[in-house]
TrEMBL record:
Protein name: Type 1 glutamine amidotransferase-like domain-containing protein
Keyword Transport listed: no
Gene Ontology biological process terms from the UniProt entry: proteolysis
Molecular-function GO terms, alphabetical: serine-type peptidase activity
Keywords for the protein's UniProt record, in alphabetical order: Hydrolase, Protease, Serine protease
Superkingdom, natural source: Bacteria
InterPro entries, per database record: Class_I_gatase-like (IPR029062), Peptidase_S51 (IPR005320)
Source species: Holdemanella porci
Record family assignment: Belongs to the peptidase S51 family.
The UniProt record lists the keyword Protease: yes
A Pfam family per the record: Peptidase_S51
Length: 103
């Protein structure tokens, strides 16, 4: 379901399924992830938990690569938040207090 909803948005711009490459945190090696990012012209950062996303980006040593990415970078929700130098999180069912995070 998530792959489909993130992939379908590109179809109306003439980007086909065969042109979309996914970085898979659970399956791809760090080198595979870096190669996929470097060989892309659009990098889409999906939504989710921004703290967990940043933890995983740092764990896979992708922060510098993403920060210096030269193509088009888009994102929504957490994917948009982590593109900023800092962002805030409002309380919800998971986060109990308002907080500001530095990327």
């Amino acid at each position: 379901m998530w792959y489909r909803s993130n992939q379908d948005v590109f179809y109306k711009y003439g980007i086909g399924k065969e042109q979309i490459v996914w970085v898979n945190y659970f399956k791809d090696s760090m080198d595979e992830m870096k190669e996929k990012i470097l060989n892309s012209s659009i990098l889409m950062l999906t939504g989710g938990a921004p703290d967990l996303m940043m933890k995983r980006i740092k764990e896979k040593k992708l922060k510098k690569l993403i920060k210096n990415y030269k193509g088009i970078m888009i994102g929504y929700s957490a994917g948009a938040m982590i593109q900023l130098d800092s962002y805030h999180i409002s309380p919800d069912e998971i986060i109990q207090n308002f907080c500001i995070r530095q990327v």
